[in-house]
Amino acid sequence: MTKKYKSEAMAALHESMQGLHDIGIVPAKTMRRFDASCLAPIEDMAPEEIVKVRNEAGVSQAVFARYLHVSLGTVSKWERGEKHPSGPAITLLNIIKRKGLESIYA
Amino acid sequence: MTKKYKSEAMAALHESMQGLHDIGIVPAKTMRRFDASCLAPIEDMAPEEIVKVRNEAGVSQAVFARYLHVSLGTVSKWERGEKHPSGPAITLLNIIKRKGLESIYA
DNA sequence: TGAAATATAACACTAAGAACTATACTATAA
DNA sequence: TTATAGTATAGTTCTTAGTGTTATATTTCA
Hints:
The structure is a homodimer of 106-residue chains. Chain A is mainly alpha-helical. Chain A has five helices and no strands. Chain A has helices at residues 8-21, 47-57, 61-68, 72-80, 87-99. In chain A, helix 3 (61-68) packs across helix 4 (72-80). Chain A is globular, with a radius of gyration of 18 Å. Chains A and B meet through helix 1, helix 3 and helix 5 of A and helix 1, helix 3 and helix 5 of B. Chain A binds a DNA duplex (30 and 30 nucleotides) through residues 1-2, 7-8, 11, 15, 27-30, 60-62, 70-74, 76-77, 79-80, 82-87, 89.
């Protein structure tokens, strides 16, 4: 396995696989608390889905923006497809989608 | 109250106060599920604190980056103070700080 | 000894996001 | 009816977070 990885994503995934491959043997320093389910590729949030998530939370764009710590304009652009949420933003949106708006601040 | 608000943050806060002010009366469309504690200004994550949060999670920069859906380089820059986390990123970091790394994917 | 994980570092480039302003629709209250 | 305020879209300019890549050094471990 002298293979080089093209991206750090692959490197991290390899790191995961390595740990899962070594049956029961969890490498000391690395790998601890490592969960493969987290590393599942995140689904990109479609504009309509963002609107849906926000509506289900029952808040306006302005309030939603405050929760996520982005500007109102940014939320508007997400929902119109003008801009795409960044990685951390998508992560937050998914958390809200799965666990509700309350889960990101309580 | 014909006052204009200088920022959307203030506007959102006003929206909150309005709802809390009207004793027991929760405005129909707006205000629902609104929580003032969420709108508390988020504390900016210091570089050392990011390192601390990550170390308490017990993961490497690469794994931490995968969880947050940012690049490894970005985490490195955060921890060295070269770049500051974006709003959503700070939000995630605070969630991890308070509720653990598991809380952002489970 | 060597392989791999870890972390720092510097580069050029892209695009997310901020801040601001204007417009328009809608619902409620006077 | 007329205001007023909340809501959302939209456009513009600008800043900077973040990406992707590569290189280097140290450490860990087989």
